[in-house]
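pasting for ref. prot 1 ->
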Amino acid sequence: MLWLEFYASFEILNASVLSPVRLDNPASRRFPEVKMFSLFAYKNDDKVLDLIKKDNRPRRTARAIVLIETEDAEQALAKASDFVHIVCDLQGLAQRNSVTFWGATAYLRAEGFWKPHRKSWRVTRTDPSWSLFGHSVATTELQGHFRKWLATIDEPDFPLDDFANSTHLLSDSYRSQQFLEVMFLEDWVAFELLVNQLAEKTEIDESARKRVLKELTKGVEQYIEQEFRNKLDDESYGYVKEQLSGLRRIPVGHLIERFAQRYGIDLKNYRIETLKKIRNGLMHFGKEPSDYDLWVFHVKMRQLLEDSLLSMVRTKEANKSERPSPGLPSEQDRPPMEEDLAEYSMSFDAQVRDEKGQSLTTGKFDVRWTCDEIKVSGKAEDPMSLWGELGNQPEGYSLSGRGAVGVVTVSNAHPTRLREFDLEMRALRVEVDYTG
C-alpha cells in the first residue's frame, strides 16, 4: 500500500494563540497517521482578537498544520479533522469560549510546490466567540500544555468522547443569552457524564460486589412476593418491583466522591450537597430552592466542571516553560496561505442524488457559504422529484459536479424553496476536489 505525505491546513476561529505549538507524533496511539502538528497565530492576530472582543463575531486568528500519512487527500482531511477537533476543544477549554475551524485543505508537494488536492468547509458553531470570564490557562504557555494534554488523551482508557461532549456543554453554558437555569443544568449534566463514565469503567473490576447485590435484590424480591403480594394490587406491586433495581445502583454522591478522589478534586471547595439540591429542584420542580442564589452556585458548578476537565488532562503537570524546538515549518516549507474571505461562492453543473446515490435530477447551481450557513440556488430539470422523496431523506441530498477549479460536492442539502424550475437549498458541507 502506497502512503503519501499530506499537509492538512486548518483555519482556526477565535483562538488566542499567544505562543506557538509544534509537536512530533503528538498522539501516536489514537492518531498514528499524524506525524507532526503545529499551531500558530496569524500576523496582526491581536487586532483581530480586539475586534472579536468588541462584537463577539467569529474571525480566523490562527492556523493549524498537520503532517499526515494516508492513502489519499480525502483520508488526510478526515483523519486530520478528527485530530484538530480535539485541539480546538482543548484550546476552547483554556480560553472559556468556542474555538473551532472553518475551512480545511489537504496539500501534496509536487515539483517543489504545495498543491491543493482537496478543500472542505462545513457549517460550524462559533458562539461564544469571546470569553467574558478570562482564560483558565495562559495561552502564552501552550507548548507544554498541549504536550501534556495530547499525551493524556492518547492513553487507551481515556474517555475521549465523554470528555469532548462535556467540553462542548461547558462552552455552550458560557453563552450569555441563555437562561441561568439552563446554564446550570448544562454544567451539571456535563459533570455527571464524566462521573458516570468512571463508574461504568470501574464496574468491570467490581464483579464480586455486583454478584452480592444481585443476590440481595433477589432475596428482597422473594420476601416481598411471600409477605406482601396478596396485600398489594397489581399496579402497586409492579411499582415496588421496579424500585428494587435501585438496590444495585450506587448513590450519585458516592460516585462523585470516587471521581473526585481519582482526579484529585477537593469537593469542599464547591459545596456539592447544595449543588445537588439545586439540580434536584430544577429537574423535578422547575425552580431552584429559594434559600440559594442561583448565580453564585452556578459559578461554583461551572468551576467544578472546568476543574474536572482540566484535571482529567493533567493540566497541573504541564511544563509551562516549554517552548517549541525545533521551530515551526519555515515559510518556504508551509502550504500557501488561504484566502481571507468571510464568504465563498462557486458555480457548478451538478447531479442531485439521494442518500443511496441514486440520481434524481441535474441542473446548474450557485453555492455560497460562510461559517454559519451554506446556501445553494439554481435551476433543476426536475425539482419536483426532490419534494417527492424529501420525507425519506433525513440526511438530505448531495449535489456533485464540475466547477471552475475542480469537482464540487455539496452534502446534507435540504430544499427550502421551489418555484417552477428554480431551487433553493441549505446544506452542511462543501468540498472541492482539485484532482477530479
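and prot 2 ->
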Amino acid sequence: MLRYFLITVKRSVSMNEKITNPFSSAVELIISELFQLLIVVEGIKLDKTKHNQLKKLARLKKEIDDSPEVKEYVNSKNTSYLVENTELEFIKGICFALDQGWSAKRYDISNLKWVIKEQDNPSKRFPEQAKKRINILEIFLPDLLENNKFEFKGLAEVKNKYPHLQILLAYMHSEELIDNIIALQSFNTEFIKAQLLIKINLESKPSVFSSFEELAKKTNTSPYINHRKNQIVNLLYYDELSNKLNIIERLLDLGRQKHKKPLSINTTSKDETWRNSVYSTDSTEEVITLKIKKSEVIAELEDNNWNGILNSIVFNIEPILDPKVNKWPSIEAYNGVDMFLQYDYWAGFRTELLLMNLSTCGESKKTPSKSRRRLMSIILLERGLTFSHWLEKNRSDKNHITVKDALEQYCDEKNKSISTIKQSYEAVNRLAHGDTFTDFLDRQSKWVLENQLPNARFVFPSMLIHK
C-alpha cells in the first residue's frame, strides 16, 4: 500500500496548473514499444528473402480468414461465450509453431493430438462447433498448407525476439496501427475538465462551482475536494486510455489479460464483545467482519495478484468507515486505475530505454547535450513508417516502383515535402538495419526480465517477453 500512496502523491498536482495526463510515462512507453515492433517489421522488409516469407504468411492468413470453413466456424460461436479474434486461432497455431521452430511434421502431430483429444472428449456445450474445428484442423489446414507449398521457415534471425503473430499483424495492419499510436498522444482534455466539473458539482450540493477556475481555487483550500479531483481525473484518463488500448489489443492480439472478477466479499459491521488478547479484557466494540471464499483468495495468490486482493478488501471497507469516501463506479474501475498508476510509476524507470532516445544516425544518445534534432521523434517515425506502408501497398512484382518515383508520387498525393519524407524514411531504414537497434532491444528485454511488474499484463504486456 506504500507504493500506492507514493503514486497517489505523485499525481496530486495543483489545479492552478493545467490538468495533465496521470499516465504520461505509461503512454510514452507504450508508444515506444509499438514503434519498436514496426521497426522490426521494417528490418524484415529490408531482407528480400525474409520479406517474401512474411508476405507468404500474410497471404496464408488472408486465405484462412476468407475461407467458408473458417467463416462458418467463427459464426457458429455461441454469443454468450464469444471469444474475441476467434478467426486468429488457426494462424496463431501456425505462428506458434514458427516461434518454436517446429517442422511441418511437428505441427501436423500437434494438430492431430488435439483432434484425438477432442474426439475422445467431445464438447457437450458446442458439439457442432467442435466438429467444424476438427474438420479445419484435420482436413482444411493441411490441404491449404500443401496447396500453398508453405514451408515452416520462420523469421528467427530477424524477428528480434518478437512473436511471429504480432509481427504478422503489425505488417498487415500497419496503417491502422500507426493511426492508433498517434491517437495515444492526444486526450480530450476539455471533455475531461467538463466531466470533472459535473461530477464534483453532483457530489458538492448545495455548494456548486460555476466554472473550472472556481473549482481550481477550492482545491487549494479543501483537501477533500482536491482528493476527489485527483480520483476523478485519474478515472477519466483511465477510461479514455483503456479504450484506446482496447483497439490496439484487437489489432495485435497482444494477450493483454482482462481484469478478473473481483473477490466476492460479504462485509458486515456491528457491535460485538471484543477480547483484547494483550490485556485479556473484554469490551463492546464496533467490529468489521469480512467473509471471503478461500478458493478465490488462493486463485488470486497463485496468479500473483496481491493488489487485486488488497483493492477488493479496501473497496469493501471504505464505505463502512465513511459512506462518502467510496465514489468509485465499480471495483473494476478501482482496480484498473490502481494498476495503470503502478504501470506508469514503473514506466518512469524505463525512460532511458525508449526508442526516442536513439539517434537518427543509428547511434545511442551519449550525453544530454546532444541535439534533439538528431534523435528519433514520434513525428519522424510516423512519417517514415507511413511512407513505407504506402510504398509496400503500391509496389508489387508487376509494378516495381523505385523509391525515388514513389516519393514523388506520395508527396504529390499527400502534399508533403519530398526531402522531409525521404529523410524520415532513410532514418527509419538505418535504425531497422543497424546493430544499435538490436543491442537496444537486448538491453531492454534484459531490463524487463529483471524488473517486470506483475500487473503489467493487465495494462500492456511487453512483447519482448512471451511464453
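The first helix runs from residue 2 to 10.
The chain has 19 helices and two strands.
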